[in-house]
Fold this sequence. Notes:
Blueprint: E1 9-10, H1 11-19, H2 23-33, E2 35-37, E3 40-42, E4 48-49, E5 55-56, E6 76-79, E7 83-88, H3 106-113, E8 137-143, H4 146-157, E9 162-170, E10 177-181, E11 184-186, E12 194-196, E13 204-212, E14 216-223, H5 230-237, E15 261-269, E16 276-280, H6 285-296
Helix pairs in contact: 1-2
Amino acid sequence: MRVEGTDKIRLDVFISESYGISRSQAKTVIESDGASVNGVKRFKSGFELRTGDEVEFCVPPPRELEVKAENIPLDIVYQDEYMAVINKPQGMVVHPAQSYTKGDTLVNALLFNFEDLSGINGVIRPGIVHRLDKDTSGLIVIAKNDEAHRSLAAQIEKKTARRIYIGLCDGNFKQDSGTVDAPIARNKRDRKKMAIVEGGKRAVTHYRVLDRFGAYTLVRFELETGRTHQIRVHIASLGHPIVGDSVYGGSTKLYGKGQLLHACMLTLTHPHTGEQMCFTAPLPDAFKQTLRTLRKK
């Protein structure tokens, strides 16, 4: 891989960002197996790269993850033999990953609370049809069998399922409503972030102002597409990042425990009966308390 657009970058940092692995993983492999820089093996993770250098690196195979059932309480909004709707708390990761192996994810809780889950997404994501960011709270639908999973996933892909969010944003919006239609892809400089990138996947977010607090605005969002970090990236591009979202420039003075973004409504067609169903979840207590504080000012 060629070093472009930067100069004097550490070898481990470049590999971490370019190959999508952690810096510690990159450091371990470099110091044991080395990485080729312009055809020469380098074993120091701090080796300094320059623009134009060619780097070859062998990405280590992923570790096999073991996912165990854990007795973690869930706020189950609805369930039957085909599906369940969960009100996920802020701070809960949806499923394990190579970068997150703790046993406190939603999947760990699902395995304890439900006997049946769809297997389409494999052993580390049973039942998971779509995701919410760790620090985004609210509604997420779970499939209990593969038939239900295929139906629910198709609804999200075809945009027949509606997902409504409420977020508190920095600044005062000039317009009462609008649409952001901008493609999203992995941030080329930081693999943990997403960005508006020409040639990325199309992403469309509709927004409407609900309330104004001078330095902050309460906004309703509706997703037309479902890209990773979509609302957070789109709204930050307007200069109004979500409060608490330090990753994308949100302020943390008012609230600093993750972004104040909540999936408040989910409308879908039941995967077996064909019934139209609408689920809602109230704002979390911390979100409501923040709004009360603003309204007292």
